[in-house]
Amino acid sequence: MIYALTWIAIFSGGALVLLFLISLIGGLELDVEIGSTDVETDAGGIGLIKGFLSFISVGSWVMKVMLLTSSNPVLSLVVGVVSGTLAFFLLNYIFKLLLKNESNVNWRMEDALFQLGDVYLKIPANEGTGLVSVNVNGVNRELKAKSFKNVELETGAKIMVVKVDDDYAYVERRLN
To answer: Which pick of 60, 115, 122, 138 has the fewest CB atoms within 10 Å?
Structure first.
């Protein structure tokens, strides 16, 4: 029994590490998702296959250690199942923490509309162009800009984006 648990733990742990490396380094997700479960990888979880492998790997190692130190196989089974379940939930929680800071890098010019920012490069009056720094979806973006009211906006001026088109953000000076 101990021999079988050792090989189960080695193979499931090795497969688990391999899947994690493929996911983290290569970005390839080789996992199964069912509906909107808590272990869904889109929600930042570890997925069903990785969750099952972590449960089997940790549970079998703990059962092996318990069988070596205790003569009670029922207690070993219970402790192995509990530790496998804890490992699954702990790994799921860690992955959710890691992926919480993931940001959406896709954005459109319309996302900058009515956002506040600063003039980065002076915007001359009368259809002149400059650069503004605007926080769009939590990321500071530099946008080509024109003055909405055709007035000069100096570097460092506080602005708000009031209109956008494909190429330019039209800005005006913030009053406060």
So the answer is: 138
